[in-house]
Design goal:
Length: about 160
């Protein structure tokens, strides 16, 4: 069974509904952006663009092959593996590092009515370390966070020259 909700902001969420104690494993959200796909892809292909507090900020990024160490002045350092990069439509990242757990982040961009639709799918919550309550909290926090981050992406891409 799948639940789907559409918020006034244009974001959608779809995820399996659990009938028992199992942890939901998939966040699937999208947003329409009045900007060309190439501009949206330029943002979402930057490792860690989504590490912020509701306002985009540039990060120092050290790269070693497909692994990036993203330095955020507020939240610290994050290891991110680039799994796939297919400009200008798909980028896939995986969190890496000690104790971070590992969810997979897929960003896809498609042309849509003179602009773009950005979709994020995050999976892997059921395999995170910790209790079911910890995994549910991670899922809920990230689900709420993607609402914010998709709005950040829209603002950055629509306001770019």
């Amino acid at each position: 069974m799948t639940a789907s909700n559409e918020a006034a902001s244009g974001t959608t969420v779809s995820h399996p509904i659990s009938s028992g104690p199992a942890v939901t494993d998939r966040i699937d959200k999208s947003i329409d952006i009045a900007a060309p796909p190439e501009r949206v892809f330029a943002l979402v292909s930057e490792p860690g663009w989504f590490i912020n507090d509701g306002e985009y900020r540039a990060h120092e990024i050290d790269r070693d092959g497909d692994v990036s160490l993203v330095h955020d002045p507020v939240h610290g350092d994050f290891g991110i593996l680039t799994v796939a990069l297919e400009a200008p439509r798909l980028v896939v990242f995986r969190w890496v590092g000690e104790g971070a757990g590992s969810t997979l982040l897929e960003f896809s961009v498609e042309a849509n009515d003179g602009g773009s639709r950005l979709r994020v799918v995050e999976t892997g919550f059921a395999s995170l370390p910790g209790s079911d309550a910890d995994r549910r909290a991670a899922f809920e926090g990230n689900s709420q966070g993607w609402d914010i981050e998709l709005e950040v992406a829209r603002a950055v891409c629509e306001n770019a020259a």
